[in-house]
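Just curious. Invent one:
>
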Amino acid sequence: SGGASPRMGCGARDVRRVGDGVQRAAFTKAGHVCTSVQKLLVHRSVAQKLHERLAEKVSALRSGDPSDSSTEVGTLITEQAAQHADELVADAVRAGAKMHKTRVNK
């Protein structure tokens, strides 16, 4: 099954390699593939290191104009889509998620 299939990270794995793979799997084709990463199940012994690696990898993605070949993460298609994304983030934060970095172009 795809879509919401979780990825698992175990304590014995190379955290850098796992983080790199998760970042690729989550952002390839803007997450519009059935195998896109949406959940991670990670052993607590490596959770902080994996979080740091993912934050590093995601922060390094180049956002911008989708017609620019150097852009890795494009914009949302409409203002409504952007508002919906803001609502999803706000719901996640209310449920206990933590935001570590924001890049918003308004």
